[in-house]
Amino acid sequence: MIDVAVVAFAQRQEAAISGESEVEFMVPLMEQAKAAAGLTQADMGFTCSGSSDFLAGQAFSFVMTIDGTGPVPPISESHVEQDGAWALYEAWVKIQCGGIDTAFVYGYGKSSPGSLRDVLATQMDPYYVCPLWPDSYAVEALAARLMLEGGHVSEARLAEIAARSRASAASNPHAVRADPKSVAEILAEDYAIDPLRPSDLPAEADGGCAVVLAAGDRARELCERPAWIRGMDHRSDAHTLGVRDLTSSASARLAAEHAGATGDKIDLAELCGPFTTSEYLLIDALGLNEDRTAINPSGGALAAHTMMASGLIRIGEAASRIWRGDGDRAVAHATSGPCLQQNLVCVLEGD
Amino acid sequence: MSGVPAAPRDPLAAPAALAEPMTVPEALSGAEPVESVCTPIRLSYTYTPGRALSRYLRAMADKRILGERCGATGQVFVPPRGVSPLAGSATSEVVELADTGYVESFNITRVPIERRPDLKPPYCSAWIVLDGASVGFLGLVINIAPEEVRIGMRVRAVWKPDEELETSAANILGWAPTGEPDEVITDYARIGRVEASDA
Question: Which residues of A touch B (CB under 8 A)?
């Protein structure tokens, strides 16, 4: 296994970026991440991105963003129609294949031009489910009801998760929802989609992020304290919601096991739980102990959820804390699909 | 085991699992089988083209064509996207271009295309390089028989009447010959060569 580290990261998230195209707002982030690593595009052994045509509302939307990398001379490039965390996985595998020691990864999404809740209905089964247009909040609320009525979690526990996210987000300049609220205040909110309250739902955002990966000695040259990827795995549950146990996340548990996200010492975890219910399931699936591990010090996906970048941002947030010495061992998680269908877990360590 | 070789499989035959009709309840025995379903999907977006294209489209309403210059290479791109695809950086300057230029390449379409009844074959699509621009962009060559169009031919934009102008690239109906002497093109790999020297 080749040691690969996250050595640079830049992000932007806002409730809506209406005046700029995707490539216009990604170029400064790409430049910022490359500059932080002291690299140019010509230095990158591989470039991989994650985005979605369904958000952009146009086919092959990602090709215009490639202009932002400056693909001259021509670059080795790939794209995933998934969160940028999966693009990072592809880049990590590419480095493991040998021959390159750097990679550039980015993910972005601008969901504000459409209705994200409706757009996400198109990821459901196209014959039986999508024609009913179940919006993504309503689908999660079905899972939430099972969890609450089955005694897996209480509304108060979900409100605690929401309150913690809001409190942590207060110190995150990229958070969209960062106004503190107490558990009592959250429990006093009217339901948005019963049994979910507004604070249980993700703060939808537009934005993106860019990450630089480097291997071995190259990483040590580029970064004072590289955030080494010690393990990474992604797993998928069945697509059909009806065949899944929505009160737990088998794929997150398995991905965590295979990534090596075990043991007592995990200083912090950045989990991509768009809903309080999903964050609760992830804490359980990863076996995290909140007394020992700081959960979502950035506020997590609840505080700002940029489709196609939210998971990669979790990796960047975790890596940034290792660079700063806020922790030595971190877990970062990304998700895709309805009700945590697919999960990626990444373990990061400082030297 | 018999020694008789199996009959060759008919590649068009239904898979074995589908060869027999599925058992259905008595009440449905006479039902007509559903052979297709139509599940319409419609999503609506309020699309914003971004800073550079918004400026470009607004200028179009005034019959002006805006390009943008790359600070690193000096090249002018049109239509602008706010980024230099050769340098991978934001463009640094908005440049107003003339509505004149020359044909860099062209083709003649002799078959009709669906949903464009306004395009009567044969018609000529061309790659037009505007005066002051570093790259060409697509347009129709009009007011001339297609077989008389040639590389290097000078053209000028034919705009919609003023009262019909909108914030749209469709304001340019096409490109008509100016009658000026043809552009002498010596370097057909113009853009590629600039890239190579900068790289």
Answer: 18-24, 27-28, 30-31, 41-42, 54, 57, 64, 67-73, 113-115, 118-119, 122, 126-127, 130-131
* Residue showing tokens 């950086």: B89
Number of residues written out for chain A: 351
Q: Which residues 6+ apart lie within 8 Å of A280 measured at CB?
A: A147, A153, A157, A158, A161, A273
* Contacts (Cβ under 8 Å, ≥6 apart) of A294: A267, A268, A269, A327
Inter-chain CB proximity B195 and A73 less than 8 Å? yes
Alpha carbon dihedral B119, B122, B127, B130, in 10-degree steps, equals -70
Name the residue with higher pLDDT: A332 or B194.
A332
pTM: 0.91
Cβ neighbours for A340, distance < 8 A, ≥ 6 positions apart: A237, A249, A251, A252, A273, A278, A281, A282
pLDDT of B41 reads 83
Type of residue numbered A172:
N
What does the pLDDT look like over A61-113, one tens digit per residue? Answer: 899 899 999 998 899 999 999 999 999 999 999 999 999 999 999 999 999 99
For residue B199, pLDDT beyond 50: no
Residues 6+ apart with CB under 8 A from A116: A55, A136, A204, A307
Whole-number Å distance between alpha carbons of B83 and B92: 9
What is the structure's pLDDT at B189? 61
B197 touches chain A (CB under 8 A): no
Helix (H) or strand (E) holding A25: helix A22-37
